[in-house]
Design goal:
- With 111 residues, the chain is α+β, with helices and mostly antiparallel strands.
- The chain has four helices and three strands, in the order βαβαααβ.
- It has helices at 31-37, 52-66, 81-91, 98-101, and strands at residues 9-11, 42-46, 104-108.
- β1, α1 (31-37) and β2 form a beta-alpha-beta unit.
């Protein structure tokens, strides 16, 4: 297992980043899990195909909430990722269909 120092958060908006290989359905390793196992404490991935124009709305809303209340020189708190993803889903629900909102998946390492 690789250890990436200070790795706290990753947002993977590409398609299928939290889905394993069809050839080995019993395996739980996918890109999002690989980052988690490498030391990232919080990862957002996708379960199936997501349209780029849709992902843009979700990502913009997500980072708006992730950086909300961040003071100058402050550090992003990876523990806010689940809250920020939930707020982003609420914020884009009139622009993004439910099927495309459900794509995003959150993984948190409990320590």
């Amino acid at each position: 297992m690789a250890n990436i120092p200070h790795a706290e958060f990753a947002f993977l908006s590409a398609c299928h980043t939290a889905v394993g290989d069809e050839e080995t359905p019993d395996e739980v390793i996918h890109l999002a899990a690989g980052l988690q196992f490498s030391g990232f404490k919080s990862v957002v991935g996708t379960l199936w195909e997501v349209d780029d124009s849709v992902a843009k709305h979700v990502v913009e809303a997500f980072y708006t909430y992730m950086f909300k209340d961040l003071k100058d020189g402050g550090v992003m708190d990876y523990r806010k990722a689940a809250w920020a993803l939930n707020c982003a889903m609420q914020a884009v629900k009139t622009k993004v269909p439910l099927k495309q909102r459900m794509v995003f998946f959150f993984i948190l390492v409990c320590s």
